[in-house]
Design goal:
The complex is a heterodimer of chains A (335) and B (296).
Chain A (H helix, E strand, L loop, with lengths): L5 E5 L3 H9 L4 E4 L17 H13 L3 E6 L8 H13 L4 E4 L2 H10 L5 E3 L8 H11 L3 E3 L6 H7 L6 E9 L3 E6 L1 H6 L3 H4 L8 E6 L2 E6 L2 E6 L15 E3 L2 E3 L7 E3 L4 H6 L4 E4 L6 H20 L8 H10 L5 E2 L9
Parallel strand pairs in A: 1-2, 1-15, 2-3, 3-4, 4-5, 5-6, 6-7, 7-15, 14-16
Antiparallel strand pairs in A: 7-14, 9-10, 10-11, 12-13
Helix pairs in contact in A: 1-2, 1-10, 3-4, 10-11
Chain B lengths: L1 E4 L8 H11 L6 E4 L12 H13 L3 E5 L7 H11 L5 E4 L2 H9 L4 E3 L8 H9 L2 E5 L6 H5 L10 E15 L3 H5 L18 E4 L5 E6 L2 E9 L4 H6 L4 E4 L6 H12 L5 H12 L3 E2 L14
Parallel strand pairs in B: 1-2, 1-11, 2-3, 3-4, 4-5, 5-6, 6-7, 7-11, 10-12
Antiparallel strand pairs in B: 7-10, 8-9, 9-10
Helix pairs in contact in B: 3-4, 9-10
The chains are: A alpha/beta (335), B alpha/beta (296).
């Protein structure tokens, strides 16, 4: 039997949404330009009108649009989050991706027809936590944090009453999403409340005799010699001194790529594969979507005979942070 | 304001844990949270051991709460969670929605731990309906965010804020203490036992920055809200939380208790607690700034 696994691609704006749909995304996830989602970057995100256009474009071509509303609104931001939810329902989003339990309760009450997905920011890593969101709010799909091993992911499929979506490609959060206050500690702005991690306003680059240095909130994150490719500084991917050694104490700048374990994910019954990167360009979204569409089609047609093609790996690595990739926590020895 | 002692975040051996809580019984701490919240591989104490400590502390007049693991992935971890939930005597602090799910299904009252994300009144009211009686505020919440919430007493909900100790900042599948020793988590040899206050991480400029504690990352600066004492009271904070350290915890509790009973000025006690910790203090999160900042 041919398996169907949804390819869910990111779009920071209409051109990226069109690129994703045109290159084979089954669903595109977007966010509004109002700080209600985890990619609250300057110039990024959709207005209500653009979202409506995006939904029309996608639906006309058989693709879905999912709206991420995955910050945890504090009292001051609550009205904005509720308004964004109403907008998502009004423009005909196929689902909203939420993290906050209060907002989920509100969504289930105020928009009973709206399909709910539990965001990766919801930090649900086991069957009881997932069951909680299903029982109380009717959540239909969970996006798993990037901390579970492949065996743990597959163990959840069929044991929870919801679909499982996992990250397939893109920047790698090594901390449990929704449970990381590193950016808050260093910059005062957090993924949970503000939808940002190590925001550009807190980042400083400086040329010194020791090399090119990156700082977040004044703290030295990394240092590069001539010609070394420099990564955007996030606290978890810095080089630090621990016990007399200087190294990437938490994680190297690298990208997640699950192409090697696609057959296991497909055969295991994972419902959807997610590509990170709403902050990326339409060209990037087009290239990644195209490669993953080809790989996923090949794998779904013949999971047993599937082998990743070198040209796919080369293409994906050329776009990856640090120009290299990892299986992250899916691969137990990484942990 | 009552005072509470957070669960020990570090991996201490069994004798050290028993000795530590033996000494805590005589302190003026009101509430003691017990249990392993970081790594399920740390099994120096069995649940029976924790219950023995709990009974002794209860005998000494302390309110005892059993804390649950934060990052729950494996079936074995869920089994332990169920045993804690079904302990039959002590209140439980839920540090994951799995715990909330089990506790609410059994209609048991519970404490919302600092690692369950509650940022608004709607979520708080929802958890109150499910049995939550106390809320330990997430580390990054500011006084302004707390002040903007509706009256928690209306929900019969106590509010607890960490006032002393380093901050729990992040959890991961990867063990950074093992990584520092070039070991994989599955063959970690329990190296975190060598670091009773965690493994310090500094920037390449030798600025103390973070502390590695197995799969958990903590702050190098030590949170200290004593100078904000009046503010905490005005915002209906019922319980002030103190994080255990390998040395000086009893002295910190004594100083904070003197503040709580009006026998010592908060600002002076803040300086003394900072001196005891041996590390720079911070209060940034409370003041809406970077958490590592000290806002005067």
């Amino acid at each position: 039997m041919r398996q169907h696994v949804e390819l869910v691609c990111p779009a920071g704006g209409l051109p990226a949404l069109k690129a994703a749909v045109d290159h084979g995304a089954d669903a595109v996830y977007i966010g509004f330009r109002d700080g209600t989602n985890a990619r609250n970057f300057p110039g990024l995100g959709f207005s209500a009108e653009e979202a409506a256009q995006g939904v029309d474009y996608a639906h006309a071509r058989g693709a879905k649009v999912l709206v991420a509303l995955n910050t945890y609104p504090d009292a001051e931001r609550w009205q904005g989050a509720a308004a964004a939810l109403a907008t998502a329902a009004a423009v005909g989003a196929d689902a909203v991706i939420l993290a906050d339990p209060g907002l989920m309760a509100h969504a289930a009450r105020a928009h009973p027809g709206l399909r709910l997905h539990l965001s990766v920011q919801g930090s649900a890593t086991n069957r009881h936590a997932i069951a909680f969101y299903h029982r109380h709010f009717g959540v239909r799909r969970v996006v798993l944090p990037r901390v579970l091993s492949l065996a743990q992911v597959l163990n959840l499929v069929g044991r929870v009453p919801v679909e499982i979506e996992v990250f397939a490609f893109g920047s790698l959060c090594v901390m449990v999403e929704g449970r990381c206050a590193l950016s808050a500690y260093v910059t005062g702005k957090s993924p949970n409340v503000h939808g940002v991690c190590s925001p550009a306003s807190a980042v400083r680059w400086e040329e010194t005799t020791a090399g090119r240095q990156s700082r977040v909130g004044g703290m030295l994150i990394d240092r590069y010699q001539d010609g070394q490719p420099a990564a955007y500084p996030t606290v978890c991917k810095g080089r630090y001194r621990v016990g007399g050694h200087v190294y990437y104490a938490i994680e190297e700048p690298t990208s997640l790529n699950v192409i090697e374990i696609l057959p296991e994910l497909v055969r295991g019954g994972v419902a959807a594969l997610k590509v990170e990167g709403r902050q990326r360009s339409p060209a990037y979204v087009a290239r990644v979507t195209k490669v993953l569409r080809a790989a996923l089609d090949a794998c779904c047609a013949d999971p047993t005979g599937f082998a990743p093609r070198q040209e796919w790996l080369d293409e994906l690595n050329s776009m990856a942070e640090g120009r290299c990739h990892t299986l992250g926590a899916y691969h137990r020895p990484w942990q | 304001m009552n005072l509470s002692l957070a669960p020990i975040p570090w991996f201490w051996d069994r004798a050290r844990v028993f000795a530590f809580y033996g000494s805590m019984a005589a302190t003026p701490i009101d509430v003691v949270y017990l249990g392993e919240t970081v790594c399920s591989k740390r099994r120096e104490l069995r649940l029976e051991d924790w219950l023995e400590i709990a009974a002794a502390l209860a005998e000494a007049g302390k309110e005892v709460v059993l804390s649950t693991l934060t990052l729950i992935e494996a079936e074995s971890e869920l089994s332990m969670l169920k045993r804690i939930v079904d302990n039959g005597r002590f209140l439980v602090e839920a540090n994951d929605m799995a715990a909330v799910d089990l506790l609410s299904a059994r209609e048991l009252p519970f404490v919302i731990g600092p690692h369950v994300n509650v940022y608004n009144g709607e979520t708080l009211a929802l958890l109150a309906r499910l049995g939550a009686r106390r809320w330990v505020v997430p580390t990054e919440i500011s006084r302004a965010q707390l002040a903007a919430l509706p009256d928690r007493r209306f929900l019969q909900m106590q509010t607890e804020v960490q006032i002393c100790g380093d901050l729990a900042l992040a959890f991961s599948a990867r063990c950074y203490t093992a990584r520092a020793h070039n070991l994989q988590k599955d063959a970690c040899a329990f190296v975190c036992r060598e670091y009773p206050d965690g493994l310090p991480l500094a920037t390449m400029e030798d600025q103390p920055f973070l502390v590695l504690n197995g799969i958990q990352t903590r702050s190098a600066a030590v949170c200290n809200l004593l100078a904000d004492w009046d503010d905490l009271g005005a915002l209906q904070v019922d319980v002030g939380r103190i994080v255990p350290q390998s040395a000086g915890t009893g002295e910190v509790i004594a100083l904070v208790h003197e503040v709580a009973t009006g026998r010592r000025a908060p600002a002076a006690a803040a300086r003394e607690v900072e001196a005891l910790s041996g590390t720079r203090r911070c209060n940034g999160h409370w003041h809406g700034a970077a958490g590592m900042a000290q806002v005067e």
